[in-house]
Amino acid sequence: MNPLNEILIYGDIGFEVQAKDIVAQLNECEGPINVRVDSFGGDVYAGISILNALRRYPDVVTVYVDGMAASAASFIAVGGADRLIMSPNSSLLIHGAWSQGMGNSEEMAQLASDLNQITDNLATIYAEKTGQEPAYWRELMKKDTTFTAEQAVEAGLADAVAEFEKSAKAEKRHAVMASGRSRFAKHAGGRGVPDIETRAAAPPLSVTRSESGDNTTMPSDGQEGDAMSIKNLAQELGVHPDVLREKLSGFFNEEVTVTATVDLTYPEGTTVVPTGEVQVAPNEDVPAGVTFELSNTPEGWTGEIAEDTGALKVTAPANVEPDTEVQFTVAVNGGSGEPVELTVPVTVKAAANTEEETTQETAPETSAPAEDTITLDAETYAELKAAAQHGWKAMEQQKEASLVAEVDGWIKEGRISAARRTKAIAAMKRDAEAARDIYGSNPAGTIPRAEIGYGKDTEPDEAKTVRAKADKVGFLTRKNFH
Question: Are the CB atoms for 270 and 280 separated by under 8 Å?
Fold first, then answer.
């Protein structure tokens, strides 16, 4: 099974991305899927195969254009998605089918006819999504036409532009980097040499409990004859020692009050049953850059702690007595100074007696039936039961018929195409509200009601063979070249 239900179409269609591989991945998925696209296109028929595989998938298909969806990748994204989402700064490019060939004038004329027919077919995919006539898209496909994420939505090719979302790890990384840049800006007054005015104003870097008192450190001025003493340095600079000391107090940490930069606590009332597990997390949000380490575990117990979040998993031993109280110790380190130790108290509670909780009193066998009780013979009861089951089945059939009628109404009103009927019905049976939001919410008249067709195929079957890989990625026809 595919646990993520996510399929990547990254690379050239028909070469790096094979239709059979996409089908195999779809067969491993259950439920709604996400398809992520970043491709400059490729073989047109491989693209059609992937498009139809996505359309056949029984659940909702959401396609995200991560970078570029060009050429064959564009009609896969537009036609294969129940919902197409453009990522910020992504693009979508369309153009007419093209190929390479050689031969006499008749063969070149046939190739031109084939390309026109393929381009007409592709134009219907964009038309079906947007409600615009195929001729409109046929005109745009005469040359490479690129849509930004916003323009794709305006044209009806895509449904929305996704908001940029950072992962939790990215958020933490950016917060740490911003903190580092901030510290550097405060502490660095020049290239390689800290500025005295700026450095003196820098805050102390430490991690303490919020209830810790004021602590000060008082380094000495150095020995009288030490060339690096405050007095000697003041003499060299031509300033009074007290003035220099004031300027450098922040730089040398000469007199700095240790402030509370981390204020974290754990719950006081955590309980666990023998052999059971319990998760204990800090009550407050963990600042960026803070790390956790389990420094003490009671005998017989086990504990695991997440280094970045401080979430502690506690497991009680099997022989522990109820009401036993233990304490785990967690060391919190902010990257400066001594780690702060926090206690996590845990109390053992008795396991619930499920037999006593679920025991119910039953009436004696000799008790008389209540006044509102009706006694039936077995045959009558069986008939009533069968009738109830028949009524339930009829009700379910009526409900299903109502859902199907609603989908057919969408098709009649031009909200979805007839090609989406089976998938829309299946979606209605799973979750009617979600299906109405995806399919039924389209404006009436979005899809032209008239069937779109482009004549019959006059090309002989023997001419429709797989062509060799082209020198350039684009829409390709499968023909033999002589």
Answer: yes
The one-letter code for the residue type at 70 is A
Query: Do 270-351 and 6-165 have the same topology in CATH?
Result: no
Nearest to 18 by CA among 29, 5, 9: 9
174 part of the active site = no
What's CA 109's distance to the chain center, in Å? Answer: 49
Residue 60 in tokens:
């909702």
95 belongs to the catalytic site: yes
Q: How confident is the model at residue 204 (pLDDT cuts 50, 70, 90)?
A: very low
Q: Any idea where the domains of the chain sit in the sequence?
A: 6-165, 168-252, 270-351
Compute the chain's Rg from CA coordinates. 36
Catalytic position from the list 39, 49, 71, 87: 71
pLDDT digits (tens, 9 = 90+) for 21-58: 999 999 999 999 999 999 999 999 999 999 999 999 99
Global pTM value: 0.47
Name the class of domain 6-165.
Answer: alpha beta
Residues 6+ apart with CB under 8 A from 42: 12, 13, 14, 15, 17, 71, 72, 73, 473, 474, 476
pLDDT of residue 463: 41
Q: Round to whole Å and give the CA distance between 412 and 433.
A: 20
Question: Can you tell me the distance from the alpha carbon of 328 to that of 338, in angstroms, rounded to the nearest whole number?
Answer: 19
Averaged confidence pLDDT in the chain: 77
Q: How far apart are CA 425 and CA 403, in angstroms?
A: 7
Among 49, 87, 91, 95, the one annotated catalytic? 95
Taking the C-alpha atoms of residue 418 and residue 450, their distance in angstroms, rounded to an integer, is 11
